[in-house]
Write a structure and sequence with these properties.
The protein is built from three helices and no strands. It has about 80 residues and is an all-alpha fold. It has one domain. The model has no long low-confidence stretch (mean pLDDT about 90). This is Periplasmic protein.
């Protein structure tokens, strides 16, 4: 039962996403703001994940010794 609800939610979300893309593409005039809103909503969870990942790296970096921090930064810039 919960699996059915989850599947329906995914199907609805996918249908909504497709409808948004169709509206953006088929519009007489390309609306850059609508396109940006769509892309932002579509990739928001990925951005949240990336921010969380950077936060973890930040915490890790600040528990390193200054020498280790320099080594870390050197390897990141290569």
């Amino acid at each position: 039962m919960a699996g059915d609800r989850a599947r329906l939610k995914v199907m609805h979300s996918e249908h909504s996403r497709r409808r948004s893309v169709v509206e953006i593409i088929s519009s007489d005039v390309f609306n850059r703001n609508e396109a940006r809103d769509y892309v932002e909503s579509r990739y928001h969870s990925s951005m949240d994940f990336a921010v969380d990942e950077l936060e973890i790296q930040h915490r890790f970096f600040h528990i390193l010794t200054p020498q280790q921090q320099q080594m870390w930064l050197s390897s990141c810039l290569k």
